[in-house]
Amino acid sequence: MKNRDYKNFTKGHIYHLYNRGNNKEIVFRDEQDYRAFLFRLGLALGIEKEDLNKCEITKSLKSKIRVVGLKPNYFKLHAFCLMPNHLHLLIE
Q1: What are phi and psi of 45, to 5 degrees?
Q2: Most buried by CB count within 10 Å: which residue of 12, 43, 52, 71?
Q3: Helices (DSSP H) in 1-92: which residue ranges?
Q4: Has residue 21 been placed in a domain?
Q5: Is the separation of the CB atoms in 86 and 18 below 8 Å?
Q6: How many domains is the chain partitioned into structurally?
Q7: Which domain holds residue 47?
Q8: pLDDT digits (tens, 9 = 90+) for 30-43
Q9: What are all long-range contacts of 56-65, with beta carbons under 8 Å and residues at least 24 apart?
Q10: Low-confidence ranges of the chain (pLDDT < 50)
Q11: 65 belongs to a structural domain
């Protein structure tokens, strides 16, 4: 299983990323968990923290996290699906 968790991504290609809780355990326990994830996803997409705090779907008191400048590494999100014990992202 060499290099199982490390992939080389190529600009312009679309990738299906997914992750599941350990032993299929719940990842998102309540609405606050979903909001916190969407807030962090928004940061990774390059959306400003202030704008995310204004948006009702990502407004979250528990989402105050350290923000690292990722501007050169933005990706495009084509689709996503969040379920209690796993998630899917379709990114470019």
Answers
A1: -80, -5
A2: 52
A3: 31-44, 49-54
A4: yes
A5: yes
A6: 1
A7: 15-91
A8: 988 998 898 888 88
A9: 59/35, 60/32, 60/35, 60/36, 62/32, 62/35, 62/36, 63/35, 63/36, 63/39, 65/39, 65/40
A10: 63-69
A11: yes
